[in-house]
Amino acid sequence: MNDVILKMEGIEKSFSGVHALKSVDFELRRGEVHALMGENGAGKSTLMKVLCGIHQPDGGRIVLFGKEVSFRNIAQAQAAGISVIHQELNMMNHLSVAQNIYIGREPAKGIMIDDRKMIRDAKGLFDRIGVNIDPRVRLGELTVGKQQMVEIAKAVSRDCRLLVLDEPTAALTQTEVEELFKIMTDLKQRGIGMIYISHRMDEIERISDRVTVMRDGEYAGTVNTSDTTKDEIVRMMVGRVIYAGHKTESTVAKDAPAVLEVQGLNCGSEVKDVSFKLRQGEILGFSGLMGAGRTEVARAVYGADPRDSGTIKINGKEVEINSPEQAVKNGICYLSEDRKQYGLLLDKSVAENSALASLETFTRMGWINDKSIEGQAEKTNAALRTKTPSVEQLVKNLSGGNQQKVIVARWLIKNSDIFIFDEPTRGIDIGAKSEMYSLMEELVTEGKSIIMISSELSEIQRLCDRVIVMCEGRITAELDCADATQEEIMRYATMRESMKG
Predict the structure, then answer these.
(1) Beta bridge pairs of residue 7
(2) The CATH number of the domain where 465 resides is what?
(3) Looking at the structure, do residues 178 and 129 belong to the same domain, yes or no?
(4) In this structure, are 123 and 27 located in the same domain?
(5) CA 473 to mean position of chain CA atoms
(6) Is 15 a member of any domain?
(7) Is 439 a domain residue?
(8) pLDDT, the chain, mean
(9) Which of 185, 209, 238 is the last residue of a domain?
């Protein structure tokens, strides 16, 4: 178990004069899960790309299975026993599972591909790692979690001895996470070493043996997971402690009026008779398991999806919201969990994205006042502490946390009063999460109101004044922050309406 299978020593890498890796060390043992952590931009991905032959190092050396190596491409790294499961899977959805596993190295019978053997071999792989997947099914019909299992099977089929998993649980349900961890435990017992990249502290505590932290392209240290704490890991990552505990007392004024009231909301089978109130200056949390109906409620309130029935009141007055445009006119904004697909124009500037919802404000006689847009974008993004060289920078070049701030800037410029944050910290690092938490707290201090949907119970507890728990499209509990323990939330998140009481 203690045999070292990988040593990276003094790794250096620069891009156009920018020092991305500065004498970085990393070590992996046989049968170990070694977590690699750091803020976005810390150098984790660059280090892994050096390991896999995508980038060649400017200095340092790599010793793999006792031999010094230098890979010129991914194929050479794979031949040496290294496989990578990327966060964004690069597979062919139109092909079968078996075809995806063996593409480019299909078993043959004469000059023809031996499909029967390929399916048998794929079935054997799944039996080996304890997964029940039909090798004949089209890959695109599987969930993301099952597709990842296919990727792992593909790696095992290549006699992988070192597996890199990059944010593997980002899009998985809790059940799929459990399945992944079971497979990883089995791979450990087979002696496969794994490098596990994740921002999720609870997962790191549970699955990893050691943690190596990077900060600003440098090696910050390695600790045994069992001997350290969250605070210590975070301190290594950002140089300060940023975790806060469970919020036990609401900061909302007792006489705060309801700014949003939803009554009897129904949308197909996904949202069933949902009613709630949001008060001024409140952060109202929506918690529940994947598929509970939280996002569907938000989209219906925002007018993005049609509702079958139900009423919506803003400041006590019933309003008709059948489109996002109507929601925005009534002071409601929505920050989607998929900011890249639904929130941003990645090839446009910070200024253009910031002004997107308020173009009529900056338009005169059919002409858009670019100087006015840039001035307002600079002012608002400066207040949000958005890290960007200028508002002319393309949004795609910003980190995830700063992209999120640009969307917030858009709605502040629009002067929205009700913010719906759907998974606001998904895919951003620890430091950026802390900044997002502070931003949300500042918004409610200024009189804004927030609905926050989150799958991370720790941030629900950290921020929310009240918590609404959903299961199978229904509200199963409404908890004050003092009562919103993780055990209580999970109890109601798995409780059907008919089981209450």
Answers:
(1) 27, 63
(2) 3.40.50.300
(3) yes
(4) yes
(5) 23
(6) yes
(7) no
(8) 88
(9) 238
In the structure encoding, which two tokens stand for residue 352, read together? 């253009």
**Number of domains forming the structure of the chain:** 3
143-153 confidence digits (pLDDT tens): 877 888 888 88
Residue 287 has pLDDT above 50, yes or no: yes
User: What one-character-per-residue DSSP string does 409-437 give?
Assistant: HHHHHTT-SEEEEESTTTT--HHHHHHHH
Range of the domain at 82: 4-238
112-130 pLDDT tens trace: 888 899 999 999 888 887 7
Q: How confident is the model over 201-206, as a mean pLDDT? A: 86
Burial grade of 115 (CB within 10 A; 0-12, 13-18, 19 or more): middle
Query: How far is residue 429 CA from its own chain's centroid?
Result: 9
pLDDT at 194 (0 to 100): 96
pLDDT value of position 500: 44
Quick one: pLDDT band at residue 142, thresholds 50, 70, 90?
confident
Specify whether 477 is located in the same domain as 393.
no
Q: Which residue has the tokens 């500065």?
A: 22
Q: Which of 220, 309, 225, 256 is nearest to 32 (CA)?
A: 225
Structure tokens that stand for 147 in this block: 């597709």
> Is the Cβ–Cβ distance between 27 and 6 less than 8 Å?
yes
CA dist 177 and 182 (Å) reads 9
Q: Are residues 205 and 105 in the same domain?
A: yes
User: Whose structure tokens read 């707290």?
Assistant: 441
